[in-house]
Automatic annotation (TrEMBL):
Keyword Translocase: no
SUPFAM superfamilies the UniProt entry points to: Formate/glycerate dehydrogenase catalytic domain-like, NAD(P)-binding Rossmann-fold domains
Highest taxon in the source lineage: Bacteria
Pfam families with a match to the protein in the record: 2-Hacid_dh (PF00389), 2-Hacid_dh_C (PF02826)
Domain D-isomer specific 2-hydroxyacid dehydrogenase catalytic: 43-313
Similarity section: Belongs to the D-isomer specific 2-hydroxyacid dehydrogenase family.
Statement: the UniProt record of this protein carries the keyword Cell division: no
Keyword line: NAD, NADP, Oxidoreductase
GO terms assigned for molecular function: glyoxylate reductase (NADPH) activity; hydroxypyruvate reductase [NAD(P)H] activity; NAD binding
Protein name as it appears in the record: 2-hydroxyacid dehydrogenase
Length: 313
């Protein structure tokens, strides 16, 4: 019997690799751990984890020999890191290999929202175009003043792309970064929102950034503003966002992540100025393969007693 369990909706190649490299036992979710016989649970030393369900101390306590959690993804807000550290459990994630995909998606969402892709595609597919149904004019994306909230690994890739779109780049982070000349630093998110047309959110998720994009930040953006979020749904005060989109206090939003995903608040989904995507930031064949490979290298290192490539704790 393997001492590794793999939790989550892995692709077929990742599933095969987990079985081959670790003889991993597959579980659909963390709940299934409780149903494993106690003797079997006691042998588990490693978990390959993929998903967003809470991996808290209570779950860890069901696996008394656990020493490694290798997360599939850079965001590890679902895992209680303090609880893991207190139990001597090492946690790893998969940063950097997904930066390009997530940054590409953020910029694509920003353009798609400005240019009204959803309505335009419907016009073409439905035959409305052929019937002479005219579309309203969209808005220009290039050259806008864009604020990146969180100039980390992904935020920087987004900013670099927007610079090529002739945008004026502003950013907010807890510390000033080494950037190309002309990028403007803001210490406060409200100050950032006041200075820009649009905001793209790339901060970490988790309790520390819950509601970081507050009603105050959204209000400071103004009626021509657009919010793009590829980070975590919890970062935005979703009630304030719904109110702002519905009243026209901001022009629009493009969201890859939601507060209660995979459920989207029905009040949001009905709004014509929202462009929703089902959390597909890193969902390409190439990037998912790289994430899976890094997850398995990290898990192998931890189980062999070596330092992993990308540790969290
Ligand atoms: P990163 O390099 O760690 O950057 C995170 C940014 O968040 C940094 O700018 C950091 O600010 C800021 N930050 C961290 N803790 C903060 C706090 N307590 N208060 C305010 N700001 C804080 O992370 P990354 O690799 O760019 O990833 C960013 C996030 O994107 C991930 O955490 C994940 O949730 C999300 N993501 C989403 C997808 C998707 O499919 N949509 C895919 C990948 C990642 P400082 O610079 O001041 O430290």
């Amino acid at each position: 019997m393997s001492n590794v369990i793999a939790v989550g909706p892995y692709s077929d190649p990742d599933d095969a690799a987990l079985r081959e490299e670790f003889d991993a036992r597959r579980l659909p979710g963390l709940d299934a751990i409780a149903e494993m016989p106690e003797a079997e649970r006691a042998t588990v030393t490693g978990v390959a984890f993929m998903g967003h369900e809470p991996f808290d101390g209570a779950v860890m306590d069901r696996l008394p020999a656990l020493k490694a959690i290798a997360n599939f993804g850079v965001g590890y807000d679902a895992i209680d890191i303090a609880a893991a550290t207190a139990r001597g459990i090492r946690v790893t994630n998969t940063p950097d290999v997904l930066n390009d995909d997530v940054a590409d998606l953020a910029v694509a969402m920003w353009i798609a929202q400005a240019r009204g892709f959803e309505t335009a595609i419907r016009n073409a597919r439905s035959g409305d175009w052929g019937r002479g149904v005219a579309l309203p004019l969209a808005r220009k994306a290039s050259g806008r003043r864009v604020g990146i909230l969180g100039l980390g690994r992904i935020g920087r890739e987004i900013a670099d792309r927007l610079a090529a779109f002739k945008c004026e780049i502003h950013y907010q982070s807890r510390s000033r970064k080494d950037t190309p000349a002309g990028w403007t630093y803001h210490a406060d998110p409200v100050e950032l929102a006041r200075a820009v047309d649009d905001i793209i959110i790339a901060v970490v998720g988790g309790p520390e950034t819950q509601g970081y994009v507050s009603a105050g930040v959204i209000g400071a953006l103004g009626p021509d503003g657009v919010i793009v979020n590829i980070s975590r749904g919890t970062v935005i005060d979703e009630e304030a966002l719904i109110a702002a989109l519905a009243s026209g206090a901001i022009r629009g939003a493009a969201l890859d992540v939601f507060r209660d995903e995979p459920r989207i608040d029905p009040r949001l989904i009905d709004l014509p100025n929202l462009l929703p995507l089902p959390h597909i930031g890193s969902a390409t064949v190439e990037t998912r393969a790289a994430m899976g490979a890094l997850q398995r290298r990290n898990l192998r290192a931890l189980l062999d007693g070596r330092e992993p490539e990308t540790p969290v704790n």
